[in-house]
């Protein structure tokens, strides 16, 4: 009998694995519906949707292994990272979904949310003021108009699977929608900045690296307190606080 593995669990959603089947339990039915639609639209390898019931989605496992692990050097080849970049470019070139990604809000709202979160981080003693101030300055480069593309929305390395030099699948499309393509590239390389060159090479387009650096700061500032409140640790090696410190 296959064991039930808890992959992810917090107050918003949980993901369980039983053999080669993943069960995603989510109180937001709209998020499940969007994930199913995004999987159907994405022009890259994705899990197969097995069935869907209210608040539960069953999907297949994808072959291969994760591109990298948080806090550890990536053992994947430069070609595998480039293949991930090429897949992201293919996604970004696809028709844009009619709904925004969770991180695809308007620039003014993003700036306001970021300023409010910076105040909370300092007032709550979570991060020192100089660290927050410096990263808020870096983040400014991301706060510019962008042409919306089809984005994954949460493209960290644990959601990208490879076998050798080939990409075999991208999972967890719950945040997919229209948004800034450079945010996807930033999320993919957040904990492995040394692989940014490989990803950009595979992406095959002019990329403003300063904007990617800015998105590293934006994502880390916005995520730190949420992670703590949901029993994750943004202070572990390679996680969000390390990303913020690197900007100093």
Automatic annotation (TrEMBL):
The keyword Transferase applies. InterPro entries: AGP_Transferase (IPR051678), Aminoglycoside_PTrfase (IPR002575), Kinase-like_dom_sf (IPR011009). Pfam families: APH. One of its GO terms (molecular function) is kinase activity. It comes from the Bacteria. This is Aminoglycoside phosphotransferase (APT) family kinase protein. Signal peptide: none annotated. Residues 31-204 form the Aminoglycoside phosphotransferase domain. Transmembrane segments: none annotated. Keywords: Kinase, Transferase.
């Amino acid at each position: 009998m296959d064991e039930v593995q808890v992959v992810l669990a917090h107050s918003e959603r949980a993901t369980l694995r039983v053999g080669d089947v993943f069960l995603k339990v989510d109180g937001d039915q709209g998020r499940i519906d969007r994930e199913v639609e995004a999987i159907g639209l994405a022009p890259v390898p994705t899990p197969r949707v097995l069935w869907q019931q209210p608040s539960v989605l069953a999907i297949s496992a994808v072959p291969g292994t994760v591109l990298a692990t948080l806090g550890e050097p990536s053992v994947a080849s430069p070609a595998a990272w480039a293949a991930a970049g090429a897949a992201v470019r293919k996604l970004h070139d696809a028709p844009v979904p009619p709904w925004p990604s969770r991180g695809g809000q308007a620039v003014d709202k993003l700036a306001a949310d970021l300023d409010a979160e910076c105040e909370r981080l300092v007032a709550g003693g979570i991060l020192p003021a100089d660290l927050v101030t410096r990263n808020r300055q870096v983040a400014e480069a991301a706060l510019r108009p962008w042409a919306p593309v089809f984005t994954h929305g949460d493209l960290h390395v644990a959601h990208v699977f490879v076998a050798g030099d080939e990409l075999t699948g991208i999972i967890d499309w719950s945040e997919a929608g229209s948004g800034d393509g450079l945010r996807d590239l930033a999320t993919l390389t957040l904990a492995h900045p040394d692989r940014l060159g490989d990803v950009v090479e595979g992406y095959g387009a002019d990329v403003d690296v300063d904007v990617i650096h800015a998105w590293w700061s934006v994502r880390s500032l916005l995520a730190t307190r949420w992670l703590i409140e949901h029993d994750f640790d943004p202070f572990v090696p390679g996680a969000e606080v390390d990303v913020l410190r690197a900007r100093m």
